[in-house]
Design a protein that fits this description.
With about 60 residues, the protein is mainly alpha-helical. Helix content is about 90%, strand content about 0%. The N and C termini lie far apart (about 95 Å).
Length: about 60
C-alpha cells in the first residue's frame, strides 16, 4: 500500500508539472497573438489614415462641375 501511495504521489506531482508547463505555453501563445493583433491594428489604422488622405487629394483634384 505504501508503494502505491508513493507512486500515486509521484504521478500527481508529474501531472502538476505538466499542467504548469501547459499553462505557461498557453500564456506565451496568447501573448504572441496579442502582440500580432496589436501590430495588425496599428497597421490597419495607418492604412485607414492614408486612404483618407488619398481620398481627400483625389477629391480636391477632380474638377467641379
Amino acid at each position: 500500500v505504501k508503494n502505491k501511495d508513493v507512486e500515486n504521489e509521484r504521478r500527481f506531482n508529474e501531472m502538476g508539472v505538466r499542467m504548469d508547463t501547459a499553462m505557461t505555453t498557453a500564456q506565451n501563445h496568447i501573448h504572441s497573438v496579442d502582440v500580432k493583433v496589436d501590430t495588425l491594428i496599428s497597421t490597419v489604422n495607418i492604412m485607414g489614415n492614408k486612404i483618407t488622405e488619398l481620398s481627400t487629394i483625389i477629391n480636391e483634384r477632380i474638377p467641379k462641375k
